[in-house]
Amino acid sequence: MGFDGLENINPKLYRKCQDREVTADDVDDNIVDEFDSREVFDLIRSINDPEHPLTLEELNVLKQDDIMVDNVKNEVKVLFTPTIPHCSMATLIGLSIRVQLLRSLPARFKVTVEIAPGTHASEDGVNKQLADKERVAAALENSHLIAVINQCIVAK
Question: Which pTM does this prediction carry?
């Protein structure tokens, strides 16, 4: 670990996306509005990094292009890119994304959260943990861990 226990002392910052403009159709309850990658991105872009006072969007951990939504199959898949290849917080980041989506999306959606291929030294292991429903459920029963996740997903 680096200075003050941080693994990535000086992370690169990225420009935030523009906020999505709300149209009359967006607020019209008579129009069926399918979920899209931008809407899912908007739900998770403000999640805080566990090590820095920055969002996952600002650190480029989350990108709209890495979100796939299939409204027919009711599936949402999010790929995320840790800031460094040996990030020990990758599982916590993945859990935070997953919890935010489970709390925000309709229950009909199956949510998959994975590390973007080739971006982490332990990619297979972290992805296996994030895909294991029993491990995720056990993690969310841990009061300390859920407190940390809640701190990450609270809006600024």
Answer: 0.82
